[in-house]
């Protein structure tokens, strides 16, 4: 079975500061990992994914994430937060060979001016 | 290009009624997924189509839920005898064939069962 945990319901940072949104996962095989962002009354927007290769993945809007196999983590990071980054962020995992994707409960990011 | 579209954007119905939710995937995407997102939670997988066939319907909660994709493009999620607990946002996503590919989501249909 595959599962994802986002241990923080909320993350608050000041504009210009670095941000981290945490994600840990559990799969029986090789993980495919994804980050999505959701703005109010809008669908999920893809940010980045890890399938294989370099552990550091760069995505849209200056976001990046690091795959850490030993810690089973895939934390989302950005060096300098913007107020417009304020949104709901979801981590998701798919076990290799599975069709369904499991999402975490989401982390609400608030960037203060 | 056009993204995934879903209609209606909002649907209010009464307990016991039948509803249909429509999804129009990105052109050329052969894989289509339905998810349900309840308030304060992440999306929950319902069903996956590869082409016209339901390749995995393990996420459908019970036999009141059914989905079709007769021509391998547009899909309809059908809910019979709706219950208040069915109230949620129903999300559709599509991707190219490979399961490593990114799923692109539509804006969702907010279903409210009174």
Describe what you observe in this structure.
The complex is a heterodimer of chains A (113) and B (114). By secondary structure, chain A is mainly beta. Helices cover 0% and strands 53% of the residues of chain A. Chain A contains no helices and twelve strands. The termini of chain A are far apart. The model of chain A has no long low-confidence stretch (mean pLDDT 94). The mean pLDDT of chain B is 93. Helices cover 0% and strands 48% of the residues of chain B. Chain B is globular and about 40 Å long. Chain B contains no helices and eleven strands. In chain B, the strands form two sheets. In chain B, strands 2, 4, 5, 6, 9, 10 and 11 form a seven-stranded mixed sheet that branches. Chain B is mostly beta strands and 114 residues long. At the A-B interface, strand 5, strand 6, strand 10 and strand 11 of A face strand 5 and strand 10 of B.
Mean pLDDT of chain A: 94
Describe the biggest sheet of chain B?
Answer: 7 strands, mixed
- Rg of chain B is 13 Å
Order of helices and strands of chain A: EEEEEEEEEEEE
**What fraction of residues of chain A sit in β-strands?**
over 45%
Q: In whole angstroms, how far apart are the ends of chain B?
A: 37 Å
Count the beta strands of chain B: 11
Radius of gyration of chain A, taken over Cα atoms and rounded to an integer in Å: 13 Å
Mean pLDDT of chain B: 93
Indicate the low-confidence ranges of chain B by residue numbers: none
List unreliable stretches of 5+ residues of chain A: none
Which protein chains are joined by the largest interface, and how many residues does each one contribute?
A: A-B, 26 and 24 residues
Structural class of chain B: mainly beta
Helix count, DSSP H or I runs of 4 or more residues of chain A:
0
Number of helices of chain B: 0
């Amino acid at each position: 079975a595959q599962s994802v945990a986002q241990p923080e319901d909320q993350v608050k940072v000041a504009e210009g500061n670095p941000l981290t949104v945490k994600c840990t996962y559990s799969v029986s095989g090789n993980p495919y990992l994804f980050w999505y962002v959701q703005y109010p009354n809008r669908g999920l927007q893809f940010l980045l994914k890890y399938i294989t290769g370099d552990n550091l993945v760069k995505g849209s809007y200056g976001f990046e994430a690091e795959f850490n196999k030993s810690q089973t983590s895939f934390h989302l990071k950005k060096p300098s937060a913007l107020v417009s980054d304020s949104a709901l962020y979801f981590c998701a995992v798919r076990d290799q060979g599975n069709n369904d994707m499991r999402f975490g409960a989401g982390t609400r990011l608030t960037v203060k001016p | 290009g056009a993204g995934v579209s879903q209609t209606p954007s909002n649907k209010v119905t009464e307990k016991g009624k039948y509803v249909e939710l429509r999804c129009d995937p990105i052109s050329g995407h052969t894989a289509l997924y339905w998810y349900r997102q309840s308030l304060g939670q992440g999306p929950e997988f319902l069903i996956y189509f590869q082409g016209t066939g339901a390749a995995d319907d393990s996420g459908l909660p019970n036999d009141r839920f059914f989905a079709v994709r007769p021509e391998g493009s547009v899909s309809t999620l059908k809910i019979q005898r709706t219950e208040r607990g069915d109230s949620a946002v129903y999300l559709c996503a599509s991707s190219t064939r490979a399961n490593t590919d990114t799923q692109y989501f539509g804006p969702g249909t907010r279903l409210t069962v009174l």
